[in-house]
Write a structure and sequence with these properties.
The complex is a heterodimer of chains A (about 120) and B (about 110).
Chain A (H helix, E strand, L loop, with lengths): L2 E3 L4 E5 L4 E3 L2 E3 L5 E7 L5 E7 L5 E3 L5 E5 L4 E6 L8 E8 L9 E2 L3 E6 L1
Parallel strand pairs in A: 2-12
Antiparallel strand pairs in A: 1-4, 3-9, 5-6, 5-10, 7-8, 8-9, 10-11, 10-12
Chain B lengths: L4 E3 L2 E4 L5 E6 L6 E8 L3 E9 L2 E4 L8 E7 L2 E6 L8 E8 L7 E2 L3 E5 L1
Classes of the chains: A mainly beta (about 120), B mainly beta (about 110).
Chain lengths: ~120, ~110
């Protein structure tokens, strides 16, 4: 069965520092890949997605993610973190061309930003 | 585009009462998903619909939970009777036929006392 692993439950970074959140998936074939962000008291917002093509995808709020087939990974990065980036981040996958089947979500990584 | 709309945003009720949560998906989207989020269990898929038809309700915790989608623009999640352990944030999300990306509503925070 497909699964998504986010190894880091909680990460703390200093404002202005770079960020990388890890995501690994277990799947028979390359799935569609997503990152969502959930700010406190809010719903999940789509940050970026990978369907095909360039393995480095750009998203909103200055985030990017790189798909690495050999490592079954889709790590999220940001070169300089802002205090407003403090939130919960979820990686998600779904089988390609599966119609509207549900995404499989990781358990999330909580990001804290310190001054 | 108004996004996914959920109501109410907050609901406080007493144990044993009926609770109805409402969702309006994004216009043109043909799939709708109900999730529950708690600290202990994280984000759980309860049920989803394609073209107003329930496809998988295996995530619905008990018979006390039911969901309907009478038309493409409206869905309800009902809990009857409610229990304190149902306290959680309930999210609705929608997606369209060609893309799997889901768009989430702001959620309903349910507290059962």
């Amino acid at each position: 069965a497909q699964s998504v692993t986010q190894p880091d439950i909680h990460i703390t970074v200093s404002e202005g520092a770079s960020l990388e959140l890890r995501c690994n998936y277990s799947y028979g074939a390359t799935p569609y890949l997503f990152w969502y962000v959930q700010s406190p008291g809010q719903g999940l917002q789509l940050l970026l997605k990978y369907f095909s093509g360039d393995t480095l995808v750009q998203g909103i709020k200055g985030f990017e993610a790189e798909f690495k087939r050999s490592q079954s990974s889709f790590n999220l990065r940001k070169p300089s973190v802002h205090w407003s980036d403090a939130a919960e981040y979820f990686c998600a996958v779904v089988r390609r061309n599966s119609g509207n089947t549900p995404l499989v979500f990781g358990k999330g990584t909580r990001l804290s930003v310190i001054a | 585009d108004a996004g996914v709309i959920q109501s109410p945003r907050h609901e406080v009720t007493e144990m044993g009462q009926e609770v109805t949560l409402r969702c309006k998906p994004i216009s043109g989207h043909n799939s709708l998903f109900w999730y529950r989020q708690t600290m202990m269990r994280g984000l759980e898929l309860l049920i989803y619909f394609n073209n107003n038809v329930p496809i998988d309700d295996s995530g619905m915790p008990e018979d006390r939970f039911s969901a309907k989608m009478p038309n493409a623009s409206f869905s309800t999640l009902k809990i009857q009777p409610s229990e304190p352990r149902d306290s959680a944030v309930y999210f609705c999300a929608s997606s369209n036929r060609d893309r799997n990306e889901q768009y989430f509503g702001p959620g309903t925070r349910l507290t059962v006392t």
